[in-house]
Give the backbone structure.
Amino acid sequence: MRRPRVFVEELGERPVARGSEAHHLYHVLRLRPGDRVILFDGRGREADGVVSEASATEVRFAAAAARPVRREPPFELTLYVALLKGDKLAGVVRAGSELGVSRFVLLITERSVPRGMGRAKLERLRRIALEAAKQSGRSRLAEVSEPRTLDELEPVPFGLVAHPAAARTLEGVAWPESGRLALASGPEGGFSPAEVERLSGLGFAPVYLGPRILRAETAPLVLAAAATAARGL
Ligand code: SAM
């Protein structure tokens, strides 16, 4: 049987999973003493582990020495995604995490229908990033930041913003080999011209993704996939 991947805050000889993670391990995966797992800390390290004690609130492990694992892209990929209606961001966070996104920055834009995000919904997105990291074998956990406005953004060293009216396509983009990559996509109603100008001023070059208008939850994943595919990752 495939060994479950278990997230723990700290790897060491006696790591512990708590809270909702322990609940999931105990009630859903039904882990019990003697079961073997792979422990990961979401910061690039893994260790083989064996359950030593299990309850619904705490699962304890005996762990072997931690080892660094390399399943991450060589660059740090930040996806700037506008707040979207309903539960659409869940799919973006799930698939974006599988693709290697390091950080999701949620944007409150002029045309975003939701004007913010409650704590419970944000925590759920973080939980989805964790589940995607486990399922895909990722060694790092993607961050999901609190929503912010474009006025709160810092300039970026390399950025692209998906914009249907842009002249430039993804063909011929000189993707950096390392460092920070920033990719932005808009809400269902698109970015306003002033927002595109503001993002351009921060270092996001507008790009056209083709003659079809993609859904607001598809476009960010196309950008992330293009960045990783360009490096064969
Ligand atoms: N009418 C809107 C507009 O003109 O921007 C369409 C918005 S689209 C549903 C949502 C977001 O996906 C856009 O803000 C953009 O970031 C991205 N997008 C969708 N299709 C695109 C395309 N063909 N080229 C570039 N960006 C696209």
